[in-house]
Specification:
The chain is an all-alpha fold and 117 residues long. It has one domain (33-116). 93% of the residues lie in helices and 0% in strands.
Length: 117
């Protein structure tokens, strides 16, 4: 995960922890019966848990999308490099074969000249 993703996750965790602590402290100091306060704390904790799951799902989807985008871009770039190298190889191979054939003809001509002398 990138540094930006770690920072975002840390900020998100800090915000959720701060919100949970604030809610719990507010409820504990509220002038209500203990049973009612515990029920509210439990409900709020469940709400926060659900919010955290939703945020995790959203962040997870974004990371998967980014990975998919990066992966596609990398594959496309690798294919382009491979095609460029193959095209260059084919171009120079044909030139080398052509030059080699010219050299062979020149050598054969020289040998024929030497035999005929």
């Amino acid at each position: 995960m990138s540094k930006n993703g770690k920072n975002t996750a840390g900020i998100l965790a800090g915000l959720l922890a701060g919100a949970a602590a604030g809610v719990i402290l507010g409820m504990l100091y509220a002038p209500e019966e203990g049973k009612e306060t515990r029920k509210k704390i439990k409900n709020k904790a469940n709400d926060l848990k659900d919010q955290a799951k939703n945020k995790y799902g959203e962040v997870s989807e974004k990371v998967k999308d980014q990975y998919g985008n990066i992966s596609s871009t990398f594959k496309e770039t690798a294919n382009n490099v491979a095609h460029t190298m193959k095209d260059g190889y084919d171009k120079y191979k044909d030139q080398i074969v052509s030059k080699t054939a010219d050299v062979v003809k020149d050598v054969e001509a020289e040998l024929n000249d030497l035999k005929n002398k």
